[in-house]
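Sequence and fold
=================
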Amino acid sequence: MNKLLHPILLLITAIACQPSKKEQPSLPRIAIAGLAIESSTFSPAFTHEEAFHAKTGDDVFSVYPFLAPDSSTRKRANWFPALQGHALPGGIVTKEAYESLVNQTLDLLKESLPYDGLFFDIHGAMSVEGLDDPEADFIARVRQIVGKETSISTCMDLHGNISKELAHHTDLMTCYRLAPHEDEIESKKRAVVN
């Protein structure tokens, strides 16, 4: 019986070690992060953290219908949603709210490094107490975490502010093409697919 058992175990081991014909080549690792608000510096109001209704982890997918579980886009990559927050247009963002949301994003991005790409979802017209260019500050800090090899694709409003610093840290950039923004979701999908 032992003479028969040994060849059978070897055969099972050999079959188990064969690569499956169904195996796919490894998919790209894509992170998602972003904060969006259209700020008015003329408003006396301040925008606080809770106004962003920040979503983390799998809850981020609910913002993007093109990343539904059964969508072809979702199946093209391994996704690592960090944090996505979107506030209604309002007053200047408090420094405290900005730092809290950015630091949460950076901590979440650190958890799943490395990435092949990152979808950076912003508005382009955020104002923060004490910062001249918050989107550029944010993307520079993201770039420090993800490194220079990670492609960053940014989507923003068509009237967003594109500073030299923001452009420097972005590999691909797209914006809405219509006002009113009937193509917002289409533009975000374009940024992801790019």
